[in-house]
Structures are given as C-alpha cells and as structure tokens.
Write a structure and sequence with these properties.
By secondary structure, the protein is of the alpha+beta class. The chain has four domains: 226 residues, Heat Shock Protein 90; 187 residues, Ribosomal Protein S5, domain 2 (2-Layer Sandwich); 70 residues, 3-Layer(aba) Sandwich (Rossmann fold); 124 residues, Up-down Bundle (Four Helix Bundle (Hemerythrin (Met), subunit A)). It is built from 23 helices and 23 strands. The structure holds adenosine-5'-diphosphate (ADP). The site of adenosine-5'-diphosphate (ADP) has 16 residues, from helix 2.
C-alpha cells in the first residue's frame, strides 16, 4: 500500500461532533484537563504494552523503559506528548479516535440541560478523553504505530476538530503514539514549562510511569561553558496504592481518583488498605460523588482495575466486586495471581474469589463508616472479616452524609440484597426508605424497628407506582388511625427486594396490601375493635353478597375490610400472590403474567356501602359495584380496564 493511496479524509461520527461542541462550550474554564486526559491515555497504553510484553517479549523492541515525554516548542507554538506504549493500528485509530462506541451515548446527550455548570459535570462523567485536545488546540496531529507491526505501518491522523479528519499511512521507527497540539491563540499559557509541570504534579504524580520533560538549563558559572539542559522526570512515578498512607494527602488520593475514575469531581470517599493473610493484596477503592450516566446500562465503562505485582492486567470490575457495587472505582493489586491470568482463569480462581469477598466486605465497611459518619476502629471493621488482616494503621476519615450516597447509589444496594445472600443482613442495614413518618428516604429498618408500637412484631410496607400513590393509598388508613408506621416503596426494584428480604432483625416484612390483616394485638382498644369489626362484618353480609354477585369472576372474593376508615373499598392480593404493582411492572415490560384476580375489601362504615346494602335494582347494584372496583384500581395508581365506561357510570351517578 503506498502512502498516497492510503490517504483519505473522513467525517467524525455525529456524536463526536456534538461532543466536541459541547465540550468546548462547557469546559472552557477547565482547559488544563487536556494534559491529564492525554497522559492518562499514554499511561494506559504503557500499561497495555507492559502486560502484552509479559507474554511476548518481542513487543518491547529492545526498549522497555516505558515513559511519557512532553516537549514544548514556543516558536512553533506546539506541545508534543509522546509515549512508547502499545500504539494503534490504522483500524484502531479509526475505531478509537473519531467514533464513540459506547452504549448510552444517545441517552447521555439527552440528559444535557444547556446549563453550563451542570453539563460540565455530565461531560466530565462521560469522559472527553482524547477530544479534550481541542480545548487548547485548533489543530491536532497524532502519529502512532502499534507494537509488533513493522515501521511502514505507522498511521498519521490530523484534524482541526471541525468535523473531519485526515488519515494517512506513514513510516514510524518507534512504537507508540505522538500527539502534537497546535495551540489556539488564547492558550499561550500552556507553552510555559512551569505551568505544564504544575499540571503534571496535580494530576499525574501517581501514575506509575515517569513523565519526562526538558529541564531548565542552569546558568553558566563564570569561566564555564553553559550546560545544556537535561531531561528530568517531573512526576513521582510510583503507583499511589503502594505508598504508605501516612505519606499521602487527600489531594493525592483525589487526583489519583480523577485519573483512574475519569471524573472531574473529587470522590465521595476512599478506602486504602493492604491486606495480608492467605492472600496478599492492596485495595485503593473510591466512591464517586455522582452516579455515572451509564450506571443503569448493561455495561458501564470504568470500574476497578486489576494489577498483578504493579502490572496492569485488565479492567475486571465484575471479577473484583459484585455487580451491585459497580459504582466503585479504583485499583486492586495482588501478588497471588500469575501475570498471564486470563478472564476465564480469573473467574474460576479461588484466590480471586477470596479477594472479591474481602473487597466486598471492605466496601460495605466503608459504607457503614459513612453511616456512622465518623472514623471507625480496626476492631469494628475486622470483626467479621476472616480472610485477611489489615496491615498498618487504619483510619478512614469521612465527612460525607450517607444520604448523599444513598440518593446516588441506593438502588444498587437493593440489588445487593437480592444477589448477595452472604451479606444480605449487612446490606439490609444500609438500606434507607421513605415511610409514613418521614418521606425523604432516610429511614433505616433498624430505626423503624426501634419505633414499632407496643405489640407490633411485623414491619409493614406498601409498594406502589410512585411515592404519591404509596402515600395516599387507602390501605394506609387503619395504620394512620392506629399510629403504625408503614414503609413506602415505589421503585421498580422494590418488588424484587421485598421478595428476597422477608425478615429483618427477626421481624417479618409484610405487605399491607396482601393477605388478611390482623392488627388486633396492636394498640389500646384492640379487643373492643376486634369485636366491633365482627359485628359490622355480620351486618354487612348482604352488601358483600350483592357486590360479589355483581362483579362475578372479576374478583377472587369480596369481604369486609379491616384496613379502611375513609375509603369505601380497596383491592388486596392473597398472601402469596403477585402484588398488583408487580403485575403492572411485568406487563409494562411486555412479560406475560398469569391472570391474578384481586380480592375486593369493602368498608361497612362507609355511606356508599350502606346505601348499596339497601339497593334493589340489579342494574344499579351492578354499576355501583363496578364503580367501587374501578375506584379501588385507580387508588392503586392503575387504570380501570374500561376507563371510558367508568367515566360514563360516574357521570350517570352524578346526574342523579
Ligand atoms: P478513553 O481513554 O476514555 O477510552 P479516549 O477518547 O481518550 O477515550 O481514547 C479512545 C481510545 O483511543 C482509548 O481507549 C485507546 O484505545 C485509544 N488511545 C488513545 N490514546 C492512546 C495512546 N496514547 N496510545 C494508544 N492508544 C490510545
């Protein structure tokens, strides 16, 4: 292939153009991050080379001194960032630079608000990576060669960030990637070495490769010749997690997080531990402040990186932590796996399994710390960790409100209750809910239990489509009257949650819309209430019979209620039937659901029921019963089967 034949101009994918425009508008006061992003990429490329070279030494091409070199040319007004990492083939350049191949990209653009500050955060979470070059450059060239390919397979890429790029095949002696940024007029400050060095210190001190720059020439002493400047290493170039905690500041941790988490914001909290026992490993894990835009996508992007003896092996979030902790970012480094470990081996490795369990417990421990909102002692963290001992002094400081964590990641923990049998009780304590006492999602089950009424041995909950529907459900009437707190559940996942979390602290969890309700042992007038109910039920028998006949096989049963004080009727399910909320969720998801018939409970104290008991005309009884039924459906936040028919019947009634 000749060089000219290989030359072509291509258009950026639409999303890239959009991202470039947005980025330039919303990150203009944050331009310096271009250097962090490019160094991050270079460091990832060095990581990949090092890993691949463990299997094939030829890839080193006689040069295993992995580093990043940064050069400034004040006259030409360019900054060059050169690495000797893995490099890219022509196909890789096309696929990586110029396209965004990420699920959720469309949704991401949909989330943007036009508000600069907010969008800057979102874009930060999305990750601008290589494209951030255009924050300071009006022309960018990238020359690269993939390790292992011959020198004729170099690739030259060039763009002014205006929607198109040029691609060419060139000769490149050395492997790796060189990026030249031609600075915009207003970006002159980045031609200053000191400025660049301070940015490198800020963001890249702890990436594990040297970042080199030309040092400042020493002024010549009298009579001596001027000494040429020497190349110096600007950053610390030691992996942060290998350093003692006592030497590290919050800022060090935060900056490393931004590198590894591809985030613009500081993390919410971190955990740094070296564990020794049967297996030896280090953890440096972070909780982000905000949920990434793709938290609910099937594959979310950046997670936890696995290192073996400081060598980056792979992004292996699911192997290192359970899926419900997918929001955690960071590094795990171990001596107990071979360098050539594959994903398949990892999934079957007992060492990995033990480390995953250990890491899971640490993360839960960190969350428990947040709950306490104060440093925790070693003994407390360690009490139920059996696989390893913590080495060195361990104190995790945090000044974060657990509610902030919960609002971002709470629903992930609910998945934990469902998926993680071994830690279910521990996770259950970390859950927070809205209840009839406090509807801001801050009530823990322990708090609920502590507030339970005299004689109450059950945790009551209701599931509904929304918080409003839950809060105003007629099922709550008797609970209000008796002053019994009810947990209000309104997330889709809550239906699954409650089917897995059936007990907490030896108290059963019970849906108040299921089964027969017996509150007779709770409250002061329990005995009298019970007797009164029995009498009323007897008196209401004729009404019950009428409604039952009118509704026919629309219902499983009609009975007198214990739950209502104000509403005429409500729907309940049998104890082990699917709840109507669950039925609705499954139907919306297009799943076939067995035909569940509800039970209609009627309130004999209600005027409408008393009127119904006296009715003679069968047509009227039919209409009336059908209205009662549809009203109860509506009160659940659902639609009656025949909404127009319902309206017609109501109107007929209003006219009378
Ligand atoms: P991200 O780093 O978040 O994946 P980027 O847009 O910065 O996004 O980069 C896209 C891809 O391009 C990277 O994942 C990597 O495969 C490739 N890439 C970028 N810079 C380099 C580099 N210096 N060396 C090798 N590959 C690179």
């Amino acid at each position: 292939m000749t060089a000219t034949a290989a030359k072509e101009t291509r258009a950026f994918q639409t999303e890239v153009k959009q991202l470039l425009d947005l980025m330039i508008h919303s990150l203009y006061s944050n331009k310096e991050i271009f250097l962090r992003e490019l160094i991050s990429n270079a460091s990832d490329a060095a990581d990949k080379l090092r890993f691949e070279a463990t299997k094939d030494d030829a890839l080193n091409e006689g040069d295993s001194d992995l580093h990043v070199y940064i050069d400034v040319d004040k006259e030409a007004r360019t900054i060059t960032i050169r690495d000797n990492g893995i490099g890219m083939s022509r196909d890789e350049v096309v696929n990586n630079i110029g396209t965004i191949a990420r699920s959720g990209t469309k949704e991401f653009f949909g989330q943007l608000t036009g508000d600069q500050e907010q969008d800057a955060h979102l874009i930060g979470q999305f990750g601008v990576g290589f494209y951030s070059s255009f924050l300071i450059a009006d022309k960018v060239t990238l020359t690269t060669r993939r390790a292992g390919l011959t020198k004729e397979h170099g690739v030259h890429w060039e763009s002014a960030g205006d929607g198109e790029y040029e691609l060419d095949t060139v000769e490149k002696e050395t492997r790796g990637t060189e990026i030249v940024l031609h600075l915009r007029e207003e970006a002159d400050e980045y031609l200053d070495d000191y400025r660049l060095k301070s940015i490198i210190h800020k963001y890249a001190d702890h990436i594990p490769f040297p970042i080199r720059m030309m040092g400042t020439p020493l002024p010549a002493a009298e009579g001596e010749e001027e000494k040429a400047a020497e190349i110096e290493t600007v950053n610390q170039a030691s992996a942060l997690w290998t350093r003692p905690k006592s030497e590290l500041s919050d800022e060090d941790y935060n900056n490393f997080y931004k590198h590894i988490g591809h985030d613009f914001e500081d993390p919410m909290a971190h955990l740094h531990q070296k564990l020794e026992g049967k297996y030896e490993y280090s953890l440096l894990l972070y909780l982000p402040k905000r949920a990434p835009f793709d938290l609910w996508q099937a594959e979310s992007k950046h997670g936890v990186k696995l290192y073996v003896r400081r060598v980056f092996i792979m992004e292996a979030s699911e192997e290192l932590l359970p899926r419900y902790l997918r929001f955690v970012r960071g590094v795990m480094d171990t001596n107990d796996l071979p360098l050539n470990v594959s994903r398949e081996i990892l999934q079957k490795s007992p060492a990995m399994d033990a480390m995953k369990k250990g890491a899971t417990k640490r993360v839960l421990g960190l969350l428990e710390d947040l709950v306490k909102n104060s440093p925790v002692t070693d003994a407390e963290i360690d009490s139920d960790v059996v696989d390893a001992e913590i080495v060195g002094e361990e104190k995790e400081e945090s000044s974060v409100d657990y509610a902030d964590f919960w609002s971002q990641f709470g629903n992930c923990l609910k998945e934990g209750v469902i998926e993680d049998d071994a830690n279910r009780d521990r996770i259950a304590k970390l859950l927070r809910f809205s209840t009839t006492t406090s509807d801001d999602q801050t009530v823990s089950l322990s708090e609920y239990v502590a507030r339970m009424q005299e004689g109450q041995d059950t945790i009551y909950f209701i599931t509904a489509e929304s918080l409003a529907a839950a809060k105003h459900s007629p099922h709550l009437e008797v609970f209000r009257k008796k002053g019994i707190e009810v947990v209000l559940l309104h997330d889709r996942i809550d239906e699954w949650l409650t089917s897995h979390l059936t007990e907490f602290d030896d108290k059963k969890l019970q849906s108040i819309a299921k089964g027969e309700l017996d509150l007779s042992s709770i409250g002061e007038n329990a005995e009298e209430d019970k007797k009164e109910h029995e009498e009323k039920a007897k008196a209401a028998e004729p009404a019950v019979e009428k409604v039952k006949e009118a509704l026919g096989d629309k219902v499983k049963d009609v009975r007198v209620t214990d739950r209502l004080t104000e509403s005429p009727a409500c729907l309940v399910s049998e104890q082990f039937d699917m709840s109507s909320n669950m039925e609705r969720i499954l139907k919306q998801a297009g799943q076939s659901v067995p035909d569940m018939k509800p039970i209609l409970e009627i309130n004999p104290d209600h005027e409408l029921i008393q009127r119904l008991a006296k009715m003679r005309s069968q047509d009227k009884i039919n209409d009336f019963s059908s209205i009662l039924f549809d009203q109860a459906v509506l009160a659940e936040g659902a639609l009656p089967e025949d909404p127009a028919g319902f309206v017609r019947k109501i109107n007929a009634l209003l006219k009378q």
